[in-house]
Specification:
heterodimer, A: alpha/beta, Rossmann fold, six-stranded mixed sheet, four-stranded antiparallel sheet, 36% helix, 27% strand, globular, B: mainly alpha, ABC transporter involved in vitamin B12 uptake, BtuC, two-stranded antiparallel sheet, 11 helices, 4 strands, 5% strand, binds adenosine-5'-triphosphate, binds magnesium ion
């Protein structure tokens, strides 16, 4: 369970998020939609404690993670797949996953479970992350986050720059995680991709919440999306 | 005498310089690489190493090797402890901001220097080497068409100098193994590669920083303990190692450990050779010129990777 309670965030003096509130239940995919620069990535960084909150709270499974130092947040069970992947490029696939496993002392069975979802990574085991293809890098970024057995998973544009088959693979992993009871917060630009997986959709604009709707409502009436995103 | 024996002698002297310089510069490079800050007080940690080595060896009687062995183990740990304290009380407070860290470490530099002057005093003091056998060195000559070894007069080194080279090599291998083969090394490299992602994967970055700052200072101190039986301890001795470390780190590529070691060997050896055949001043001039050329034509360093 992930709850954001009226968070305000600024970079220096420039306030970016204003009273943003969200909640994602276990086994639910909430999709965050907004134009470029709306504050989606900023929201995720704020959840991870990488940006200080001016006010508001972030609560994960009853723990106020916004009161913790940033390095303690993942251990509560928050897996982060950042925009642009941000792998540890000079480290190998194995080492990137080891860093993920370390967070909650996951054993070999956790690793096996993750590799079952991404068998390609096992073949690339000792390869340096920066030499992987874009699709493989996205798999590794996702796998690294799954290695900490998250109960909350944050994915920031996981399908950016991927071909359709890879997008489908990532989409399937996301649904598997939802079915295992993980609360998934997904940022995605492509509206059709969103509508096929999301349970609910939250719109943000200029760092403020607009409405949050069930995905069916959007599937039924595409005009809502166009109104909020101006696409 | 022909030039060969002189060259060998100069290279050996240069290798001792290179060994000590490599340790000191790797410490500086490690701090810069992982923490992205420039530690201007690095030379003072070197100086502290030498002064504390004098103090520890003075405390312990008996065979000089006993006191020296104690100094070799204790002093780097002590200096690392001082550096960790400085990191946690000062650098952490200014959030490792690059500019403010330069100013703060200049402050640390003067504090360490003046406290040493007030307690240890202005004298230069020697430390007895743990072992110091004179080793005559052979050279090859061709007599009647067959190579033959002979021992030219004056061509010698000491067992201690060879010991310094070997010890420095051993420690450098140890640093490499720490970075490449251990869990904590993995965390240090991850922190270096992407600080925010390290935090997002539970790595206690501030503790890693304190540790790295301590290890960096400890390496400088260790280098000083090794060189103090040859050079004497003095409260102003930190300037040269700082300057040379900067030269080496810039030539080697900021934050690149193999590059730093290679550059230290290059600078150390050429310093030894040029000092013997020409003058020490010319050696410094050429090293500084090389830095200028590197900065103009290859800012990432001779061995550093291009920024991506
Ligand atoms: N480090 C930073 N310093 C200052 N301003 C920043 C910083 N990072 C982001 N911003 C600003 O914050 C606002 C929100 O950025 P954010 O990255 O959260 O947008 P986003 O919704 O993720 O956009 P995109 O869809 O392009 O990824 C933007 O106006 C951006 O310019
Ligand atoms: Mg973004």
């Amino acid at each position: 369970m992930l709850e954001l309670d009226g968070i305000n965030v600024a970079y220096g003096k420039a306030q970016v998020l204003r009273d943003v509130s969200l909640s994602v239940a276990p086994g639910e995919i909430l999709c965050l939609l907004g134009r470029n620069g709306a504050g989606k990535t900023t929201t995720m960084k704020a959840i991870m404690g990488l940006l200080p909150l001016m006010s508001g709270r972030v609560v994960v499974n009853g723990t106020a993670v916004s009161d913790l130092p940033a390095h303690k947040v993942p251990a509560v069970g928050v897996g982060y797949v950042p925009q642009g992947r941000r792998l540890f490029g000079e480290l190998t696939v194995a080492q990137n996953l080891e860093i993920g496993l370390r967070v909650r002392r996951g054993g070999p069975e956790v690793l096996d479970g993750v590799l079952a979802l991404f068998p390609r990574l096992a073949e690339r085991w000792s390869q340096r992350a920066q030499t992987l293809s874009g699709g493989e890098q996205q798999m590794l970024a996702t796998a690294r986050a799954l290695c900490l057995q998250p109960s909350v998973l944050l994915l920031d544009e996981p399908t950016e720059g991927l071909q359709p088959s890879m997008i489908e693979a990532i989409r399937q992993v996301i649904t598997v995680m939802r079915d295992r009871g993980v609360a998934v917060l997904l940022v995605e630009q492509r509206v059709d991709a969103v509508l096929s997986v999301a349970d609910r959709v939250a719109f943000i604009e200029n760092g403020r919440n607009l409405e949050t709707l069930p995905a069916e409502a959007l599937r039924a009436d595409h005009a809502i999306v166009e109104r909020h995103l101006g696409v | 005498m022909e030039i060969g024996p002189y060259l060998m002698l100069a290279s050996l002297e240069g290798a001792v310089t290179a060994a000590v310089l490599a340790l000191t510069a790797v410490g500086l490079s490690l701090v810069f690489g992982v923490m992205r800050v420039v530690n201007v007080a690095h030379g003072e940690f070197f100086m502290l190493g030498a002064v504390l080595a004098w103090w520890v060896t003075g405390l312990i009687g008996g065979h000089p090797a006993l006191g020296f062995a104690m100094a070799l183990v204790l002093v780097p740990v002590l200096v690392a402890g001082i550096a960790v304290a400085a990191d946690m009380t000062i650098l952490k407070r200014i959030a490792y901001d690059p500019e403010r860290t330069i100013v703060a470490t200049i402050g640390i530099l003067y504090i360490i220097q003046q406290v040493t002057l007030m307690t240890y005093g202005p004298e230069a003091r020697p430390v007895t080497p743990p072992f110091n056998t004179r080793l005559a060195l052979p050279w090859v000559e061709f007599a009647d068409g067959a190579p033959r070894l002979y021992w030219p007069w004056g061509l010698s080194t000491t067992s201690y100098k060879l010991g310094v080279i070997a010890a420095a090599g051993g420690v450098l291998v140890g640093v490499w193994a720490l970075m490449a083969r251990t869990r904590i090394g993995l965390l240090m490299r991850a922190t270096q590669l992407d600080r925010d992602m390290a935090l997002a994967f539970g790595i206690p970055v501030e503790r890693v920083y304190a540790l790295v700052f301590g290890i960096g200072a400890g390496l400088a101190a260790l280098a000083a303990v090794l060189i103090v039986p040859i050079q004497q301890a003095h409260y102003l001795m930190g300037g040269d190692p700082l300057l040379l470390s900067f030269i080496v780190v810039i030539i080697g590529g900021l934050g690149s450990l193999p590059g730093t070691v290679l550059a230290a060997v290059l600078i150390g050896l050429s310093d030894g050779i040029i000092s013997v055949f020409f003058s020490p001043t010319l050696a410094k001039i050429l090293a500084t010129l090389l830095v200028a050329l590197v900065l103009v034509f290859r800012p990432q360093g001779l061995f550093g990777a291009r920024p991506r």
